[in-house]
Amino acid sequence: MLHAAISSPDLAELKDRIREWGRAQGFQQIGFAGIDLGGHEARLLDWLAAGFHGEMDYMARHGLKRSRPAELEPGTLSVISVRMDYLPEPMQDMKETLADPAAAYVSRYAVGRDYHKLMRRRLQRLAATIARYAGPFGYRVYTDSAPVLEKALAENAGLGWIGKHTNLVNREAGSWFFLGEIYTDLPLPPDQPATNHCGQCRACIDVCPTQAIVAPYRLDARRCVSYLTIELKGSIPAALRPGIGNRIYGCDDCQMVCPWNRFARMTEEADFLPRRGLDRGLLLEFFGWDEAEFLRCTEGSAIRRIGHERWLRNLAVAIGNAPPHPDLAEALRRRLDDASPLVREHVAWGLERQTETAPALPTGGDGAVPLQR
Length: 373
Fold this sequence. Notes:
Helix content is 38%, strand content 10%. It is elongated, with a radius of gyration of 22 Å. Helix 1 runs antiparallel to helix 6 and helix 14 runs parallel beside helix 16. It has a domain at 2-87 and 112-184. It is an alpha+beta fold. The protein has 16 helices and 10 strands. Strand 8 (213-215) and strand 9 (218-219) form a beta hairpin. The protein has a 4-stranded antiparallel sheet, sandwiched between helices. [4Fe-4S] cluster 2 binds at residues 208, 224, 251, 254. Residues 189-218 form the 4Fe-4S ferredoxin-type domain. Monomer. Residues 354-373 are annotated as: Disordered.
């Protein structure tokens, strides 16, 4: 291969050029990691042994390929790790939506266009640029699309550290960003791994609505709202439903309270900005979508992956968690005979909650309950 003759000084220069080319593709940071993930592998195996992955069988399906890059992609010598900011709005706006009893909260990574294709295209372009400079080389790009320990690789590449909530945190940029990788047979020298700066802080642990962070750096995904509303295909455990609140797709609470996110920057990518009102939708509005409307309004969005059935399941739970109101109860009654047993079960649960004796929603000055805008 042509790159086999590249000298160490040339590799150092190549790294500088890759950073430059990566920024031109819209990545905010580019780092380089080796392929030894021994410590992370041990933690992965311990996490799997505890059953914390729940129904995410794919986490164990590929054996050790996830923690051994050269087994996933033979010939891999180094990994180019990148991050791309996606924060679409000020965090205060998100908190207001979350606190609105009429609103349906969607995790902010999913309110815009699905990031997988966008980042994959950018990574392919970056790899093509590298090839024009260094000659043909072996590589493969990943964006949450294969058994890759992306956060471990990013930590080793100096992009940030894995926080107590198990998300990657960067001192200058917080945690509102996506990750992507290029596995390559270029022997690029690794960067210095990031050091941990969580200190004694436990804000993320304390705020988790379902107590899914069972210990610092230890997440029981089976309790996590993101798992329950996205990954879980069946019934949401009844004991965990109240903690979901009005979160209908994912959860951002642990990121909202992280002190390092005061440094987070708004995204520069128009594709990550909210589309079709997914950031400001109402529970009643979304629950009224039939499947055709769901598919139309989530076109190009990561939300599509859960399908209309789980969309209704999640909304039924969120409506059940809202302060009782006749309009919400009536919306649930209209779906009691839904074709899906999964939907019917969660609708019945929500309706029972809606018809319990409880304080009503606050009304506006004209006496109207703010269920619609």
